[in-house]
Design a protein that fits this description.
about 160 residues; mainly alpha; 7 helices
């Protein structure tokens, strides 16, 4: 009886350890699926370009990026929090641009795991200025900002859509 109780306790502790550490294991797995890391910008974008990206991300004031970790990302995921703060949104754009450049077709699970892990890594390792610069130079982000500007011009010319 005593041996069975110890075995059950050991299994429960092992299960608890696996559950508690699983966000870090998923993060490590996601990063392992990314070929290299995005190149850190050497020359920063102009203040105007950085401000344009920050405004497009719906940021207010000076650009700032809060470091996120796998636990915070997991909690946001389980809560269904699909509106990341502006700094995290910019990191997501940089991560997406990097992954799109790799042109790998490894499946949806691998894509999302890599995307989340690289976003976390970027918020932990790059400054806000570096992220704004990388996003401002991304053709994908440029396309999005140009499309938004075009829609804004059209709505100014034709009035709001009904």
């Amino acid at each position: 009886m005593r041996t069975a109780l110890r075995l059950l306790l050991g299994l429960l502790c092992t299960l608890a350890l696996l559950v508690v550490s699983s966000p870090w294991w998923i993060y490590a797995w996601g990063l392992s699926r990314v070929e290299g890391r995005p190149e850190r910008p050497v020359v920063m974008a102009s203040a105007e370009d950085q401000a344009r990206v920050w405004k497009f991300a719906r940021g207010e004031g000076a650009p700032q990026v809060e470091s996120i970790n796998p636990y915070g990302a997991a909690i946001d995921f389980w809560r269904g929090d699909l509106r990341p703060p502006p700094g995290e949104r910019v990191a997501m754009w940089v991560a997406r641009s990097h992954l799109m450049d790799q042109q790998r077709s490894a499946g949806m699970l691998s894509w999302h795991g890599s995307y989340a892990a690289l976003t976390i890594w970027l918020t932990r390792n790059w400054t806000a200025e570096e992220l704004m610069t990388a996003a401002s130079r991304s053709p994908m982000v440029q396309r999005w900002m140009d499309e938004q500007a075009r829609r804004n011009r059209q709505s100014m010319e034709h009035g709001p859509a009904l």
